[in-house]
Task: structure prediction
Amino acid sequence: MGTVQLDKDTNFQAQINPADVSHSFGIKYDTTKSQGSAGIEPKFASVGDERVNFSIVLDGTGVVPPVSGQPPDVKGQLAQLNKVVYEYVDLRAEPPYVRVLWGTLIFFGRLESLKAQYTLFKPGGDPLRAKVDLAFVGAMSKHEEQRVTNRTSSAANTRTVTMKEGDSLGAVCEEVYGSPSAFMKVARYNGLTDFRNIPAGTVLKFPPIGT
Result:
């Protein structure tokens, strides 16, 4: 199921998979016409906004099992969703940064719009089902930006080595790091179950020591 996450303890998970998800990227151009020019040649100005749009269904009829840890009724589910994507954060008086997880999509952004359309009701008027349209614009908190920067820097500094016949992990660690002491860390990083017998031709990654 798709998940919208504020942090590891505050998230909202959809009961039903969205029928479709729209993921768009924008590019901005300068279309100012130069003096004496016969036409306009768009010139790249900047990268535009990245956006994600999708709709989810909230169900309180009991036909669709509720998500564990989330309210079973539509009003409660919508309140939980609002808490994650809409309500102001602390004293900053601004909507939160969220992470949208759906399949292979990992999107960082902020809510641009939320529209709830109620489609089924109890006799007393309480909603039993609602369609919620969500639109997010790409944005990232300073904390998450730093994490991405650290991961990118780590990946850029990671060295790849193809093991040869007779190579030992400790010896290669000494060659890469100047010391064999990091061999256990490298073994874990590469998911090795037997670091003593590594077949020739095995490609291993040697990350920065601090990774």
